[in-house]
Write a structure and sequence with these properties.
alpha/beta, six-stranded parallel β-sheet, 14 helices
């Protein structure tokens, strides 16, 4: 199938410069869009150490990317602008700047913005945030949302131009590509954490839970953690805490085939986060049949259901311990059941839905 004459311009973060759920999702979606449309990409970079904070260097980096964006807008018209919704005061101002200049150059074209977070209600609790968001909303043709629950949430706010697009993962492996799961009980329970080291992801709660569990149980837990550090403070605190626990290892980031192999060979993954949308790390685990200990926040329930046995609670290490104990009762059954739940998040379904939304 040849490419259409429709031009799409994208502004946002991408791997490998930036690696988190939203950037990976952006990359997956752009690959799908390139199969049909003429896509222009302006990459934004925000250093992880400035996560959820503003800095002069972060502002300068944005305006450098913004200048490139303007230079690409001027010579050619575009049919669609695609980007993410930034849920912060500075972020919404960035959104407004980007879509305003797009509309100046392309007044009849569409703007599609993608939600990757679930905390819109708390964001809009501020009157200024609410004013900025609803000013932005005047320009937006379609919002892509992570789940049906999020679509309902926005409808209650009077926003009806939403389309649900479940996240998917970068790579899918068939059973033939993976080692057989052994039914033999291992001497130790292996748990992995694959996410950037951010306090609100529950990494400190997870380490404390493993420490407490290993003090009181003969069968020990080995916790392997992989990610980038969000600050030097987080790095120092994690290293100090992990030194007290021989079974806990803090590692650098892991990607590609090595990441999937590590997930597959572990007993459990873990993400006791305080706030999520629909995390890609969960879908990666589900696709491989590896259960995840996870908080029931954001739209995770749409993936796992209400009766999922390995939910834990935010800021609650004891609930992580209880989830580990529940897993021990029937580990093989857990793997088979979670793999079945992945099907609606498959790459095939995702690609079909992306093109359907952009073809409207």
């Amino acid at each position: 199938m040849g490419k259409s004459d429709v031009r799409v311009i994208f502004f946002g973060e991408l791997p490998p410069s930036t690696i988190h759920g939203a950037s990976i999702s952006n990359n997956i979606n752009l690959a799908i869009l390139r199969s049909k449309y003429r896509v222009t990409v302006i990459e934004e970079f925000a250093d992880l150490k400035y996560h959820d904070s503003f800095s002069i260097s972060k502002g300068l980096a944005f305006f450098k990317s913004f200048t490139k964006y303007l230079l690409r807008l001027v010579p050619k018209s575009h049919s669609i602008y695609y980007g993410v919704v930034y849920l912060s005061k500075a972020g919404i101002c960035k959104n407004i700047l980007l879509v305003f200049f797009f509309k100046l150059r392309n007044p009849a074209s569409k703007i599609i913005l993608h939600f990757h977070r679930s905390d819109i209600s708390s964001f809009l609790a501020s009157k200024l945030n609410s004013f900025l968001f609803f000013f932005l909303n005047r320009f937006v043709s379609i919002y892509i949302v992570l789940a049906e629950k999020q679509s309902e949430q926005l409808r209650r706010l009077g926003i009806i131009n939403t389309r649900v697009l479940f996240n998917t993962i970068e790579t899918e492996y068939s059973d033939e590509q993976l080692l057989d799961i052994s039914s033999e009980e291992k001497e130790e329970i292996t748990i992995i954490y694959i996410r950037n080291y951010i306090r609100d992801k529950g990494i400190f709660d997870l380490i404390r839970a493993v420490k407490e569990y290993n003090k009181n149980n003969v069968r020990q837990v080995v916790l392997e953690c992989y990610g980038n550090f969000s600050s030097s403070t987080i790095h120092d605190e994690l290293m100090l805490l992990s030194k007290e626990i021989p079974k806990v290892k803090i590692n650098s980031q892991i990607t590609g085939e090595q990441k999937y192999k590590t997930i597959y060979e572990s007993d459990l993954t873990a993400l006791p986060s305080y706030n999520e949308g629909l995390p890609l790390s969960l879908l990666e685990s589900m696709s491989l049949g590896t259960p995840m200990i996870i908080t029931n926040v954001g739209f995770i329930e749409e993936a796992l259901g209400t009766d999922y046995p390995y939910y834990c609670f935010p800021d609650n290490p004891q609930s992580i311990i209880e989830a580990i104990k529940r897993y021990e009762k029937d580990p093989l059954k857990s793997r088979l059941e979670i793999k079945k739940r992945y099907q609606k998040f498959s790459q095939k379904n995702h690609a079909e839905q992306v093109l359907k939304i952009f073809d409207e």
